[in-house]
Design a protein that fits this description.
Blueprint (H helix, E strand, L loop, with lengths): L4 H12 L5 H17 L7 H32 L4 H5 L7 H15 L12 H8 L3 H9 L9 H19 L1 H38 L1
């Protein structure tokens, strides 16, 4: 909702008279600030165009990182209600939420150095899936920087996979994958068993 200068002044007068809640005025102020910040201005040169676009692009990067941090904090504060009462009500899916939170954790853990984080969360997330030594290789190849594209990282990961297959051989790789999957299945089975035990406890409590 946009406000005219007269409406804004009236809301200020109401606020000073105690007739408008502070939150209402703060909301108007924030909205007007956002509108001004995102308003198009006449371009006088190509350099000015690059400057404005670069600023907005940087803001987009800051916002996806902030969203990821909010997700991490929400999971910490509301672990039981996180999936149902937070993630399921967001304007994006669980996969995006997971990727944003993963990037935020990696940044706060120091995985990325200052100025390295890609400007798109999907590219940043792909970098977080690399092992430490693979990330070092990506740095040597110039793939860890703000302007890197997702497809460049995907191509790099594909090359790594091909190199692994050549080094280990197809059968050895499959045996490793088999062991990894069995361990994952066992971990899930243990988690399910624990969840079932907790459910039975809750149900007994409800019967009392």
């Amino acid at each position: 909702m946009a406000y005219s200068r007269r409406q804004l002044q009236k809301r200020r007068d109401d606020l000073e008279a105690g007739e408008a809640p502070p939150a209402a005025f703060a909301e108007m102020h924030d909205e007007r600030v956002a509108l001004v910040a995102n308003a198009l201005v006449p371009l006088r040169s190509a350099d000015q165009a690059v400057e404005h676009i670069g600023r907005l692009w940087k803001e987009a990067q800051d916002k996806f990182l902030a969203i990821g941090r909010y997700l991490v904090e929400a999971r910490r504060r509301f672990p039981k209600a996180y999936e149902r009462e937070v993630v399921d009500r967001l304007p994006f899916g669980r996969q995006v939420a997971y990727q944003l939170a993963t990037v935020a954790r990696a940044v706060d853990a120091g995985t990325f150095q200052s100025g390295e984080l890609p400007r798109t969360y999907s590219a940043a997330y792909l970098l977080t899936t690399l092992a430490d030594e693979e990330l070092d290789q990506a740095r040597l190849k110039g793939l860890v920087h703000p302007d890197v594209r997702r497809r460049e990282i995907e191509a790099f990961k594909k090359t790594l996979e091909q190199q692994r297959q050549e080094a280990l051989g197809r059968r050895t790789l499959l045996l490793q994958q088999q062991a990894t999957l069995k361990a994952r299945i066992q971990k899930l089975a243990d988690a399910m068993e624990q969840a079932i035990a907790e459910l039975k406890y809750v149900e007994k409590e409800l019967e009392r």
